């Protein structure tokens, strides 16, 4: 296969190819990921999103990693749906501290009919502040997805979490197929998709490959791909999970970058347990988005001032809302770079 074919926006990744990427020598994998990253993005620019838990705890689902499941005693206090005014206050504060996207999360299996008017008001209010909007509310049917899209919601986050094979070890109350259907409803309604997963849950490398294959072989790549490192929360079945080798985490970011060249890959949950060097390595591997602000949904995240310092030390600037590179321009740039390179040794050949 030619080098040119290897860097196309592909939707036909095979397991053998992806495993071969994971098994590359680290330096070769990083080089390949950086080559793709620099072709599609400014490598010194990172998008920042702030999370807000609009409805906390008492979730009926059994996701083994999650502090918000009602099935585990994690000491979390359940909270009712936040008032629209309070959400808008939080969004203003996020904007003032530099975020460009505001992600609202609810510990629901799926929103109920009575919730929809409130969440659509939240979307409208946050959007009117000049922020991009994202929500993660669990499963959506077609009508709910359309309602959110009509309210102006830009992104919907719904993660596949892991490979289809490992999924049943983590969640039993909703199926992989349920998740794929929600994602299809989100696309059909015309919203951008934010979809990724969690690593460090005791999965094998082949599961990390399996997750990325699911994402990259979608008819359209998710615009945003959060790669979460498990936050081990006392009381959940995953509390004592063994640490993931940090290089395996970085490899996952790098392979995601290669497989989904134009997507924003987000260095997501787990940064509290990463030192600055590891985070810098994630950016080198192609991560170009983070969650910004002291709290994720219910667990801590690095202080915003620390992130700002890290950005300054690394010469990273924040992506502004308007300056997403036009998609067509990006694709042209990918092909142009390939024409110029013609260097097969930059890219592995899975057939070898
Ligand atoms: N309830 C909705 C749902 O699950 O679709 C939305 C909120 S849920 C908390 C959003 C995502 O957060 C999950 O799909 C999972 O990927 C991530 N997440 C939750 N707990 C986590 C943890 N302890 N460590 C890392 N990621 C976590
Ligand atoms: C995503 O992939 N990660 C975020 C967001 N989407 C909603 C959530 C991380 C949650 C970590 C555990 C917590 O703070 O409750
Ligand atoms: Fe509920 Fe979402 Fe947590 Fe699963 S991940 S228990 S659905 S809040």
UniProtKB/TrEMBL annotation:
The protein's name in its UniProt record: Biotin synthase
InterPro entries per the UniProt record, alphabetical: Aldolase_TIM, BATS_dom, Biotin_synth/BioAB, Biotin_synthase, Elp3/MiaA/NifB-like_rSAM, rSAM, rSAM_sf
Amino acids binding [4Fe-4S] cluster: 59, 63, 66
SMART domains noted in UniProt: BATS (SM00876), Elp3 (SM00729)
PANTHER family: BIOTIN SYNTHASE (PTHR22976), BIOTIN SYNTHASE, MITOCHONDRIAL (PTHR22976:SF2)
Superkingdom classification of source: Bacteria
Keywords: 2Fe-2S, 4Fe-4S, Biotin biosynthesis, Iron, Iron-sulfur, Metal-binding, S-adenosyl-L-methionine, Transferase
Cofactor binding note of this UniProt entry: Binds 1 [4Fe-4S] cluster. The cluster is coordinated with 3 cysteines and an exchangeable S-adenosyl-L-methionine.
Enzyme class of the recorded protein, top EC level: transferase
Organism field: Simiduia aestuariiviva
Lineage summary: Bacteria, Pseudomonadati, Pseudomonadota, Gammaproteobacteria, Cellvibrionales
Pathway, per record: Cofactor biosynthesis; biotin biosynthesis; biotin from 7,8-diaminononanoate: step 2/2
Domain Radical SAM core: 44-271
